Amino acid sequence: MSEDASLRAAAYGQGRIFQSERDIQITEHHHHGAPGTSTSANGPASVRVASSAPLRAALRDREELREELLAALDAAGGVHVLHGFGGCGKTAVARWLFDQSAASRVALWVDASTELQLRAGMLAVAADRGASPEEVRAAQEGQRAAADLVWQRLDASPEPWLLVLDNADDPQPLRDGWLRSSPRGTVLVTSRQAADPAWTGAGARMHRVGVLPVVEAAHLLHDLAPGDHQPEATLRLAQRLGCHPLALTLAGGFLSQQLLEIWTVEEYLERLGEDPVTLLDRGAGLESGARERLSRTWQLSLDALTQRGLPEATAVLRLLACWGHAPVPLALLAPSALVAVGVPGLAAERVEAGLRGLLSASLVDLFEVPGGPDGRRVRCVTAHGLLLETIKAGVPAGQRAELYGAAATLVSRAVLLGEDASTARLSEPHLVALLENGFTVGSVLDAARLVRDTYDAAGRWADALPFASGVVKAIPGEGVAEDAAAVADALKLGEILNMSGDFAGAEPVLKKALDAATTWAEDSPLLQADACVQLSSCYAKSGRSAEANRLLHRAGEIRQRVLGSTHAETVETVLEHADNQFRLGNYGVSLRLAHQLTDLVPNLHGERSDDVAARALLVSAAAMRHAQVARTPESPWRSTVAAPASDAIADVEAQELSWDLVWERAQVALDAHVRLFGPDHPRTAAARHNLALAAWAHGDQETAVAEFRRTVDIRTAYLGTEHPWTIQASGGLAHCLALQGDTHEASTLADKAYADALRILGPKHFITVGCAAAQKAASS
């Protein structure tokens, strides 16, 4: 071999090279790399010290998991894997167990984030457990099986041990014999991978580590940033951060480390709305790595998936980010649905692979939710809200329109076509998310209106409200005078706010809608009439019946002129007018209008005839009941009705009035509502409320109490405990119970009803007056 050729050989690490020159001379060359040139030779400084950052605060929650891991230490011989998506506290739990075990056993910590670090750390473990330098060197140089050496020494350890393999997000190197169980100790692995052959092969016990419960999350914030913070604000901040441990830690770190400007929790919450990820990252320490910054912790998992040949995982996550935080039914991601839409960077045939990659990296969760009345459960996928916000912020500007267009089409088709009722229902929250993002092209508005109107008809006004509000906010320029359809949307929003019990919130919306409708009076006069009716209803429910009547008079003139006297919408103004008159104490007028309604009902025409007919029967029955109470001084309900106004009830108007007739009309009205709306609709509950009052006066106390209880139950289920109508029914039930002598339950109900009415409606509202009467009856 020539001299030049002999110089071409090189040794790596601490290897040896044997070369022959001419026939018999052998030269042995030892090549020792300079310090730092060989990763294998440069192991960790110590495996007896955890390489993770120390816990910033006491570990919150995880009690059951911690108890199980402590018990595993005593039993020994097991492999345990803590898995979950980035930043959920897997390493924190491992660090806690490491610190807890250090006094009773040898605690060993290995960074398993890369194959080289895993190998170097495990060989350092072998040296710690008694392997000689020669044995370690032989393993480094490939002259003996490195993993076998490590486990031989661990199995022969004279002391029990805990071995932590941290950040094993790529478990593939562990499959080469590095992960085993031993009777001398316990192995604890932290990984983002929820499933892998390495776990199965080692017989590992899996422990999912997720977000914290909200109360513990708020406690953690307080631990990290102690001070004079409002508990309610701290709780809201924990909820806003999705109780995510890393986000909580970053927020707490920021709040506790400020020097130049001190923010309150409320101010921090307000600033989060601008750019949450950037603000949270400001809470990281100067030496923090990518895993300790929210902007990077999840990207590490996506980068790893891309390296594994799954770039589709990022595209799937971007699509999910368009839809918001609610569970996404898998039907929306079906290849058959995606083929017709086209999602940037996501071929329909690759969505399955991308989704499985996200599941394996714990970036999304797969679970089942109740799908509908048939009890069938629907498979859905969901991701943490902050993760979705982070991904959404990172979508390239050039892809946004196309991506949101695809997301909008998928959701709108699911709702409008209704081929699968369960998928349609579970897709509804994603319509709201698209509206909130300002993306209203295509059929999103049509789908949102359909959902809004469906909930409105069912009496589920709280469910209808997000869609009604979203549609109005999507109107260009935030105005309602753009076109007649926009005015109608604003009117519907005001109506739903009104029916939801938010009278104060409904009023400005309806006033603005009336102003807009007035500009369309010449082309669409009925739009102006609709606005007058809706605003009058809001005034009436607020106890401002005189103002309501003026608007009704205006609406009635328009509808009479355009539609005629027997059209359902014209008659609607009559029944609303009658309803207001007896609240004002004008019982003579209300009775005359009640008789007029009775004559009009058989001749109604128009699209809403059935609805208006049922309401007309109820208002007519209520007008008679109020008039009969007003002319019966000994009635226990006398204090709950308005004092008679100047138009006293004429004998000719009242000569046919009796409690028998009042009872009969109340029953007819209830029967009509049950037929049209069903037995448990909130509108039917109004007829039950009227029947309960009529039944008491008729002498049937048992029916009165039963109907009141059912009314309270219906309104509580549909409207909530603090809706004015629920409060009104609770007060009525309390009054009946007090008159029956059950003062204990009556006092409890009446006190709460009066307090709620006073707080929500004020002292002069007719519902508050009724609750005060019930409270007085219960205390006497």
Could you characterize what this model shows?
The protein has 35 helices and 10 strands. Strands 4-5-6-3-7 form a 5-stranded parallel sheet, sandwiched between helices. A hairpin with a 3-residue loop joins strand 1 (16-21) and strand 2 (25-30). It is elongated.
Task: Break the fold down into its secondary structure elements and pairings.
Blueprint: H1 3-6, E1 16-21, E2 25-30, H2 63-75, E3 79-83, H3 90-101, E4 106-111, H4 115-128, H5 133-140, H6 146-155, E5 161-166, E6 185-191, H7 197-201, E7 205-208, H8 214-224, H9 231-240, H10 245-256, H11 265-272, H12 276-281, H13 294-307, H14 312-323, E8 328-329, H15 335-339, H16 351-360, E9 365-370, E10 377-382, H17 385-393, H18 397-417, H19 421-436, H20 444-457, H21 461-473, H22 484-499, H23 503-519, H24 525-541, H25 545-563, H26 568-583, H27 587-600, H28 609-630, H29 651-654, H30 659-677, H31 682-698, H32 701-719, H33 724-740, H34 743-761, H35 766-779
Parallel strand pairs: 3-6, 3-7, 4-5, 5-6
Antiparallel strand pairs: 1-2, 8-10, 9-10
Helix pairs in contact: 4-5, 4-6, 8-9, 8-10, 9-11, 14-16, 14-17, 14-18, 18-19, 18-20, 19-20, 19-21, 20-21, 21-22, 22-23, 22-24, 23-24, 24-25, 25-26, 26-27, 26-28, 27-28, 28-30, 28-31, 30-31, 31-32, 31-33, 32-33, 33-34, 33-35, 34-35
